[in-house]
């Protein structure tokens, strides 16, 4: 056999082995797909949806928490439920960082996990439960149904030490906020839509008193200032006291485009809300979303999808936690 034929034979058998390995890897790790649990736990998504509905009936604010969770978990390096891990002797929990101020209802995520575990022990990740509870929470708040892929696995470590590098603070410049989201693949209309989540829930006085004391920020609508001062009467609020202002006084429990009308009327509570309505890069989208709820929902759905697919652990990476607040090795 000529050397050329030998080379060709060797090349073909090498290619066949490589292809077999690639196919095996692909079977092991299909990545994120729609309905990932259809064979291993077909009821998973229905159980999560049912639990979200039940919890929402009992505790309306759970839906705000689910929505915040997807942002606070997926925006920090990976959508891997690292947010849910408790502190250990060696590491601080992300839940205890300053950026997570006001996050709550984690115990109810455990309720959802327990319901899923009863049906399919050790199959469904906390990362997928976090993402799907956000999806169903958005619907509870009157937002769009967003088809999201599953197949995430759970991280084993807290990312508390890098939270501030990834999660923008509400006082950062709009340029920093745009840059952080752009790094995750979220474009400008996507960012404007994600901040529309400020249409529901509340802002603690601790986060906005600097706009009221010692002097009132002249950018604020004077009609709104009166209400803000009434709700936040102290320049240094007691962080343990639950003092807050509703993000949207008109429809505080509904995810809608009222937020954009409010910020164009200088009623945004946070600096980032005000900047969103005034910066030339974002203002055109704010105006468009103020006019069209359908446009807001379309961009919001795209941005939530992007966020939910940010660098997930799939295949054999990570683990399926038994309890969402503890990595298995410590369980």
TrEMBL record:
| Family matches, as SUPFAM superfamilies | Heme-dependent peroxidases
- What positions constitute the catalytic site? 72
Disulphides: 41-120, 74-79, 126-324, 205-232
User: Could you tell me which residue ranges the Plant heme peroxidase family profile domain spans?
Assistant: 31-328
Q: Which cofactor does it need?
A: heme b; Ca(2+)
Q: How is the cofactor bound?
A: Binds 1 heme b (iron(II)-protoporphyrin IX) group per subunit. Binds 2 calcium ions per subunit.
Enzyme Commission code: 1.11.1.7
Q: Where does Ca(2+) 2 bind?
A: 248, 251, 256
Provenance organism: Lithocarpus litseifolius
- Which PROSITE patterns does this chain map to? PEROXIDASE_4
Q: Where does the chain bind substrate?
A: 168
Q: Where does heme b bind?
A: 198
The protein's name: Peroxidase
Q: Which InterPro entries match?
A: Haem_peroxidase (IPR002016), Haem_peroxidase_sf (IPR010255), Peroxidase_pln (IPR000823), Secretory_peroxidase (IPR033905)
Q: Which reactions fall under this protein's catalytic activity? A: 2 a phenolic donor + H2O2 = 2 a phenolic radical donor + 2 H2O
